[in-house]
Amino acid sequence: ATLPTEDKIALTISGTGAFEGLDQSATYKSLTLGEGVAWEVTIDEDGTVSQPWTASSLTIDATAQSPILLTVSGTVGEDPIQLPNFKAADKDKILLLTVGLQLVEAEDGEGLAVQETPREVGIIHWNGVQEGLWWGKQNWLLGEAATTFLNGDTVVFNKEDAAVTLDKNAVVAGVYVTNNVAITGEKTLIA
User: Fold this and answer.
1) Residue 91, SS3?
2) Is this structure's pTM higher than 0.90?
3) Cα(27)–Cα(91) distance, rounded to whole angstroms?
4) What is the 3-state secondary structure (H, E, C) of 145-162?
């Protein structure tokens, strides 16, 4: 089926392969990203952000059980680059698959941006000394130094009877378990 490409059309897109047969050159009134959508953003050398679709507004379906899978290609430096139409409130509904980048709140406090991560990804070991949370706490060791998890890290659970709460969506290069580990939470872990 061919859909109209007028700027008065509102689209809701769900599932993988959801973009097949749709006119990507059109500007839509609104676009809602639903369950399991893979969204790709390209950043040019001058910082211009290109997305697969142009829409006056972009929302993420609040009822979606799986996160939006976001891939970013192009040039991203130390300074954050704002992603048009993405909202800071949607950060936990997005899983950034691009290693070496992280989602941050934009300067305006309402949008989302991407920037380089503070360190290279590596092999990190579970320490779990701060509330047992996967993200945001220095519950990991990189060598002897405490660190936080970055998407793309390889994680090792060698601490006896580790209890971990996956509090946000995460992408790992690998998971190695040498002792009992209980991972709880209703987020997505992709290896």
Assistant:
1) helix
2) no
3) 24
4) EEECCCCCCEEEECCCCE
